[in-house]
């Protein structure tokens, strides 16, 4: 009787594959929440990070944001928002986005800052405008690091969305939380396996995106 | 707010007691991670082929959500403090190994050659030359590991109230006392900031040769020295 036994029992039970509490539904919910939070966080973090990185301003403020973002306890913030704002998507999305913005913002800033200045100077000498320099020179070179920041944000969102089951969010965390309350360890272990697989799948997706999107010249150099 | 520090009796701890518990649950794993990471990192430095697979494994381990890690361990260690501390130790290890490897590798070869020429054996060279020069990188890794560990202990609340300050969150929920949740968040964040500051102070004490502060640093200095103090790229909070 070990964990694998419980996981196997969970997956071979046909009842876990259908209905509102079925694996496909919960998986789709989890992916939907995570994607929404990631898109919102990227919509805030990427433009600000690209601009501050390009103009080289605000490094100290960003370092402060990074430390603050890391120090904030994600779980505590989640429960606090739930208590203050009640049920619903908004109280869950706020902490998810707040926690995902700092890694994206700071990594993007660092990535653009660390681009070799000589090609940037060359582009400026050739008469490129600031926006073309940013999008055609700095962005392609900084892309691997930026994707790394997005990846750690995404992984953080996936695992925090799991904990969010405690504050009544759907998703795969439901199995773990409900299973713990029902003393149904089969459900707990199955849920944990699903969450772990989803996190690893997130890693794999970012690896594939990096292979496809990063220009071969940059990959060889980096 | 006058009941801010009025901790419900079911937690069986005062506010300070919860802080002590929280620090123990958060810092012991970091220490364990450091003790395990030093020899592992040294192996990765010695045998270069070992580093890429270790790095891949650490990335994968680091992606496993904390709650999943906790509940899988329940089968072996029950709903105890140890179940919270083992995953935290693994996360710390995973953050520290790349930090230490990068730090030790950043030691300039001339310095190593000089140490060898002065008659240092490999052990003495490691302890007296490589390790001190790697201190900024190690501390940078420790900062990430410590802060995320302090934040993650709260999740232990979900597995049988093993979350120290995180247990306040559950009580805030069932007793309808939002101020307890505020207390939990603020205290945890303050602990994280204080621990971070303490590590920065430790670095300043251990590396008296490094330029102090960022304002007065001349660009020439900054370029001459390989900056080992860049924090580990992975952000470590979940």
- The CATH homologous superfamily name of chain A equals MetI-like
Radius of gyration based on Cα positions of chain A = 21 Å
Largest interface by residue count?
A-B, 55 and 48 residues
What portion of residues of chain B is helical?
Answer: 55-70%
> How many helical stretches of chain B?
9
Count the E strands of chain B. 0
- CATH superfamily annotation of chain B: MetI-like
Describe, in plain words, how this protein is organized in 3D.
The complex is a heterodimer of chains A (222) and B (238). With 222 residues, chain A is mostly helical. Chain A has a single domain, classed as MetI-like (MetI-like fold). Chain A is built from ten helices and no strands. The radius of gyration of chain A is 21 Å and the shape is elongated. The termini of chain A are far apart. Chain B has 238 residues and is an all-alpha fold. Chain B has one domain (14-208): Orthogonal Bundle (MetI-like fold), CATH 1.10.3720.10. Chain B is built from nine helices and no strands. In chain B, helix 1 runs antiparallel to helix 6 and helix 6 packs antiparallel against helix 8 (178-206). The longest helix of chain B is centred in the first third of the chain and has 32 residues, at 15-46. The model of chain B is unreliable at 215-238 (pLDDT under 50).
Notable traits:
heterodimer; A: 222 residues; mainly alpha; MetI-like fold; 0% strand; B: 238 residues; 9 helices; disordered C terminus; transport (chain A); ABC transporter permease (chain A); MetI-like (chain A); transmembrane helix (chain A); ABC_transp_perm/SBD (chain A)
Sum this structure up briefly:
Chain A: It is found in: Cell membrane; Membrane. The complex is a heterodimer of chains A (222) and B (238). By secondary structure, chain A is mainly α.
């Amino acid at each position: 009787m070990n964990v694998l036994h419980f996981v196997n029992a969970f997956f071979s039970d046909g009842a876990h594959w259908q209905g509102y509490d079925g694996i496909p539904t919960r998986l789709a919910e989890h992916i939907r929440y995570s994607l929404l939070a990631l898109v919102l966080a990227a919509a805030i973090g990427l433009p600000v990070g690209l601009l501050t990185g390009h103009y080289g301003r605000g490094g100290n403020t960003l370092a402060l944001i990074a430390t603050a973002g890391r120090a904030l306890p994600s779980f505590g913030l989640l429960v606090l928002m739930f208590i203050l704002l009640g049920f619903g998507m908004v109280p869950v999305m706020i902490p998810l986005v707040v926690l995902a913005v700092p890694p994206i913002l700071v990594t993007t800033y660092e990535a653009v800052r660390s681009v070799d200045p000589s090609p940037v100077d060359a582009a400026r000498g050739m008469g490129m405008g600031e926006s073309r320099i940013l999008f055609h020179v700095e962005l392609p070179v900084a892309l691997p690091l930026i994707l790394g920041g997005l990846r750690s944000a995404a992984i953080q969102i996936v695992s925090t969305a799991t904990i969010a089951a405690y504050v009544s969010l759907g998703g795969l965390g439901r199995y773990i939380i409900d299973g713990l309350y029902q003393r149904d360890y089969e459900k707990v272990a199955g849920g944990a396996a699903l969450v772990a697989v989803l996190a690893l799948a997130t890693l794999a997706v970012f690896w594939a995106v990096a292979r496809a999107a990063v220009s071969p010249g940059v990959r060889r150099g980096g | 707010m006058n009941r801010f520090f009025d901790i419900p009796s079911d937690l069986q701890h005062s506010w300070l007691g919860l802080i002590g518990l929280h620090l123990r649950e958060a810092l012991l794993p970091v220490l364990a991670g450091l003790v395990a990471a030093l020899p592992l990192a040294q192996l990765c430095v010695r045998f270069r082929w070992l580093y890429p697979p270790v790095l891949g494994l650490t990335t994968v381990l680091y992606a496993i959500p904390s709650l999943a890690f906790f509940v899988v361990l329940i089968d072996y260690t029950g709903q105890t403090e140890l179940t919270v501390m083992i995953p935290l130790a693994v996360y710390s290890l995973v953050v520290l190994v790349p930090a230490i490897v990068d730090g030790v590798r950043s030691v300039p070869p001339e310095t190593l050659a000089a140490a060898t020429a002065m008659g240092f054996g490999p052990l003495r060279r490691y302890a007296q030359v490589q390790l001190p020069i790697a201190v900024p990188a190690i501390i940078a890794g420790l900062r990430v590991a410590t802060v995320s560990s302090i934040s993650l202990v709260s999740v232990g609340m979900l597995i049988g109230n093993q979350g120290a300050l995180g247990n306040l969150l559950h009580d805030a929920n069932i007793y309808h006392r939002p101020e307890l949740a505020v207390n939990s968040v603020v205290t945890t964040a303050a602990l994280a900031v204080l621990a971070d500051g303490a590590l920065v102070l430790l670095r300043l004490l251990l590396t008296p040769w490094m330029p102090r502060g960022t304002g007065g640093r001349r660009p020439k200095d900054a370029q001459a020295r390989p900056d080992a103090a860049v924090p580990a790229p992975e952000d470590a909070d979940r």
